[in-house]
Amino acid sequence: MKYEVKNKKIAIILVNYCNYHLTEECIESIRKSCYTNYFIIVVDNASPDYSGEKLKKIDGIYFIQADENQGFAYGNNLGIRYAMENMADYILLLNNDTMVDKQMLSELLAYAGENTVTAPKIYYMNGDDNNPILWYAGGDLDFKNLKGRHRGLGQADKGLFNQADSVTYASGCCLLINRNIFGKVGLLDEDYFMYCEDTDFSYRLLNNKIKIQYVPDAVMWHKVSASSGKEMSPLITYYIFRNKILFAKKNLNKTYVFRAYYINFIEILKAWLGRRSPTYKKYGFWGVIDAFKQDFGKSRRRLV
User: Fold this and answer.
1) How far apart are CA 122 and CA 30, in angstroms?
2) What stretches in the chain show pLDDT beneath 50?
3) Maximum distance among all alpha carbons in the chain?
4) Backbone angles phi, psi at 264, to 5 degrees
5) Are 161 and 190 in contact (CB under 8 A)?
6) Any idea what DSSP says for residue 156?
7) pLDDT tens, 103-158?
8) Is residue 18 a contact partner of residue 48, using CB atoms and an 8 Å limit?
9) CA 284, CA 240: separation in Å to the nearest integer?
């Protein structure tokens, strides 16, 4: 249900790691928002390129310097705690490699509540306003493949996803959350380090009867993989393989844990039989091995 827009204070959290220019551009897009009762928190995850030193000089933001890089969830949790200490009513988790529409905050807030989180329609940042390509138009928890599935992924926006509705998966790319919800479901799980923590968080929301509302009139653009390199880099490959198993172990029964290992085994087998690079095979295998060893959080392996 859409409500009259409330005059609530929103804390917007951006986590930076070696991407000063992306974060700066994201901040500039936020500042064009029609809704103005917000403040921006930038968490630098111990960037070795000293981008944090430049970011903390930006006027009008709150800056947090992490002592070490303990992952996406860790950085966001630092920001969430700071936001709650500073009396934010709502907290917006927002990837730093994004640009937001000026009406996005208002539209997300109009549907949000103490038992409802809201997620926008997200396009690829392809530069073609006449033929925008969808990255996220709501989503579903896919228990068959043990992942969050994006509706409309890679499709031209032909109006098929223009209805606001309840979904079962919210991407961590952008999510507006009432502060009281964290008291019910907890913060982001830092065991994931990066990738799949939004799948875990969505599952916990649903288990606590928190509605995930997709809001198509709230629009933003995602520079996909600009923060992590190419699709399925060693970094991405390792954490996706490992964290699929972690999600099953944390939340589901042994049948699903076995299924997570099976899915990864089949994927690695197909990689060996196909044309996948040796790097993909190696890091996928390492992810499975470390999941078996219960080696979670930040990997001790050299992922390059």
Assistant:
1) 15
2) 225-231
3) 57
4) -65, -40
5) no
6) B
7) 999 999 999 999 999 999 999 997 677 789 999 999 999 999 999 999 999 999 99
8) yes
9) 8
